[in-house]
Design goal:
By secondary structure, the chain is α/β, with parallel strands linked by helices. It is about 40% helix and about 25% strand. The protein folds into two domains: about 30-115 and about 235-275, D-Maltodextrin-Binding Protein, domain 2, CATH 3.40.190; about 120-230, 3-Layer(aba) Sandwich (D-Maltodextrin-Binding Protein, domain 2). It contains twelve helices and 13 strands. The strands form three sheets. Strands 2-1-3-12-4-13 form a six-stranded mixed beta sheet, with helices on both faces. Strands 9-6-10-5-11 form a five-stranded mixed beta sheet. It has a two-stranded antiparallel sheet with strand order 7-8. It is elongated.
Length: about 280
């Protein structure tokens, strides 16, 4: 019996040793790899968390993922154009388009990655179907906030907005309010307070604001801006590279990882749903 135990123990030790050797073989010496530098906003969120999910696969392609923080989109654009970084996830589409007008054919927009959406929250009703005529709707007081709130309300059948008003829409552009909803514009603090004090029947706000109060977007909002909405297209963070890098070796190696199912899942699983994907999940 003792002999059998000894044999079994020896076999286990051999197996563990082989596993250890295999693991050591699979380890990648990151310091020996060429750096792939990504520009991100100061604080690195959410860009770093999204790309961290790709870091191991990027390493297997022969590159070490590094981050460079920028205080503004303008700084990130300048660094990318100068070749100081390889790619950037520090700009909204509108910010990139402004740069592109002044510096055409310099940077290439590979596509939208993620966004902080607006959500519609019911404060005094359980379901959209329960909302009563004449209900009070609280919306942000900023010009952007008003437009995004009105478009989200229109998309969900509450009102109609003047055709073509888009992201410049104001309360004067509401062309149909047959259910006599009352609109009030509020600063962020007052608007967020509706989630707990129920002074407004409905509140429309950004995910940044709702999550800051401890309210998860997906768990509490009854509607959010759709992926093909004007707001989603305009206010998504886009992945940029220098145009002449599309033929580079690093781009050929790493590009298949961009907008991959793994990247989608990382955005989709972001804590409290403060950001959501701006591209469709494809593949397995």
């Amino acid at each position: 019996m003792k002999k059998l135990l000894c044999i079994l123990l020896s076999a286990v030790l051999v197996a563990l040793t082989l596993c250890a050797c295999t693991d050591n073989k699979d380890e990648i010496d990151l310091d020996s790899l060429e750096a792939f530098t990504l520009g991100v906003p100061v604080g690195k969120a959410p860009a770093q968390e999204i790309f961290d999910s790709l870091s191991t696969r990027i390493a297997k392609k022969g590159y070490r993922l590094e981050y460079v923080e920028f205080a503004s989109a303008e700084e990130a654009h300048a660094a990318l154009a100068a070749g100081e970084i390889d790619a950037s996830l520090a700009s909204l589409k509108a910010e990139f388009e402004k740069f592109n007008e002044e510096n055409p054919e310099t940077l290439l927009n590979l596509g939208p990655v993620c966004r902080y959406p607006y959500g519609l929250f019911l404060c005094n009703f359980e379901k959209i179907e329960d909302v009563a005529d004449g209900a009070t709707i609280a919306i942000p007081e900023s010009a952007e906030g008003v437009a995004r709130a009105l478009l989200l309300l229109e998309a969900n059948g509450f009102i109609k907005v003047k055709e073509g008003a888009g992201l410049s829409a104001t309360l004067d552009d509401v062309t149909e309010n047959s259910r006599n909803f009352k609109f009030i514009t509020q600063d962020d603090e007052t608007l967020a307070a509706n989630l707990s004090n129920y002074e407004a029947d409905i509140a429309v706000m950004s995910s940044k604001l709702s999550v800051a109060t401890g309210v998860s977007l997906n768990k509490s909002a009854v509607a959010i801006e759709e992926i093909d909405s004007e707001a989603a297209l305009e206010f998504s963070y886009v992945l940029l590279i220098k145009r002449d890098q599309i033929a580079s070796e690093w781009y050929k190696a790493i590009e298949p990882l961009f907008f991959s199912p793994l990247m989608f899942d990382k955005v989709d699983e972001y804590p409290s749903d403060i950001v959501v994907p701006s591209f469709e999940r494809s593949g397995v």
